[in-house]
Amino acid sequence: MSINILKYESDIWKTADLLIGAGIKQSDFPKFMMPFFALVMVESRLKREATRILQEDNIEDIEDFIEIFQLEGLGYNDYVIRKGITLKDICKNDKTFDTDFDGYLKAFDAETKYLLGVEKGNEEERFLDITGVSGLLKKKRILFNTVKAWSEIDLLPFNNSDITTLEEHIKRKWADISAETAGEQYTPDDIISLISELIATKIEDNNEFLTIYDATCGGGNLLFGVEDKIQEISNRPTATYGQEWNDTLYALAKIESRFRKDTYIEYGNTITETGKFFDKSFNIAVANPPYGVDWKGFEKEVKSDETGRFHALPSISDGQFLFTQHILSKLENDNGFGVIVHNGSTLFSGDAGSGESNIRKYFFDNDWVEALIQMPQDEFFNTGIYTYLWVFNKNKPANRKDKVILIDGSNQWELLKKSKGKKRRQMNTDNRKAIVDAFVNFEDVIVDGKEMAKVFDKWHFYYNKQSIILTNVDENGKAIQMPTKTNKAGETVEEKSIKLNPTKVEFTTLDGEVKELSDFEITTFDKSAYASLEDYFNQEVKELISSIDYKESNLKIHKSKAIYSYDADKETIVEQVGNATTELGNGKMLVKAAYKKATKTKDAFIQITLELTKDTLKDYEIVPYLPIEEDNQKQIADFMAKYVTRPFEYSDNVIGVEINFNKIFYVPEKLTPITDLQSELESLENELANLENELGL
Known about the structure:
The chain is α+β, with helices and mostly antiparallel strands and about 700 residues long.
């Protein structure tokens, strides 16, 4: 890349001075700048390609030349190609500018006019909408000066890769100031280089087309950047495929694609429009999908998707894993390799059984994850958060089966001489080499006494979330025993409760009033106070019964020969028969009320029931996972025997997957020994005493 092209970055931003003077707010700058950047880009490339064709074919007849040029499929503008009139020429005469500029725009071929948004009217897809933008600038009386400023930017000497680089530097600044680009992180050159170098380690030296796919290609910087760098490294032919939903970014990528061989860009939402590249699979996938952006707008389409690409659905607030699942569905099964940029939430968000955890488990179950690489902080243009490269391989070598390498690249950086938005750091050649070498060697790496890379069995990232039903016990470790019964399967099981048939119930209300209940099937009520028995139940009885707390209400349940109460100090239910008391164990004393509607044989009534049950609590334990089921069950049992002291029953076990970079690579700060701190404190006290003596205090 010729670094000289970046000098135009400041020239392009000078065109914004006119916008400021016209009172256009900064967040709208991209809307007013993108169309003209595209215009300058297209014109320069048309001129360059025209020169190339003339030199290669030595054509003298203008009509033959125009026919050959149009067959190239690069787009066309009759002003530029036939008449040799450029934007700069049009801007020489301000009196004829309006007519000439209108003619210039209309002289483009149909597809270019479609992408630029020439005379789009009220159509939904305006893409760059140059006609609409020009009309607004004309009202502000700065259209001529704006076009003239852009016409001074000469991109003719630069190749496709150079122009792509300049384009992405400008789009990065647009992203910084435009609220519309939330969640879109433009991939910087050094990250593109790293991704390309990782891909290069997997490329075989043959003459077959290497197909590269980006499902969220934006303006194409990552897709085209990887292609350019791969072509620098390898002689293998490449074909690139991209899809983008943002109108303006799609238009820029589509225009760019026409000046590249074997490049195909489609418009549409990757998540909902499955018709794009539906019949293709790819060797390589790269992507930097939007993260932290919800998918509420197409929830219905996602949930009804029938392609089979979505194994599970992530949180509605963040759709980045939808894109990743789609991308993996498009990778060739026997030769697919992908590098996807994500933020940290994809590593650990979501509990076992959640969409995110199940998606991670799906990736690991299929053994597609070859590496996870942490990038330095402050690496991206419009975010300062840590980002990670997920490296997927659908054909891992035998020595890497069921293994994953984690690489901590967070310290592989150098400071930029000048910050670019929030990007203050970059990875130089040596930084990238350290990461690529770790990936290639696939072994533990220690740098300056600190782990930089570590290889794990993939099972290390699995865990059991074993749910259990704990039974609370009294001070003697006893719980109330339930009677047993035989179920339909012939098994002996416990009853859920002991039903009581009381004669009287005593309890204390929240106000301290002692109350008695002796009627457990209520059919009468005060008709002057309540409209019906059901009204009486809803307004009086239900509230009273629900206020009874067996631990706090001094509840006593009287049966014909026994009284039941709860000893809060011993946490046990006490049964009293005459003068003898028995501690039954920890449990609950429940009082319930229900309104029973009238039937053909019985009038409506309020039923009050009392029962004793075990006091149980649903809990869970996180237990390390083992891939062999028998070993895993034994590990769970051993864990429970060691750490769970109360009686319990097993409930569901859900297997989760998460990756915690901080836990794996965390180095605790070495604390100063207490003796050294005491010595330092004594020294300071002595110095203070000496100063006081010198001052005569």
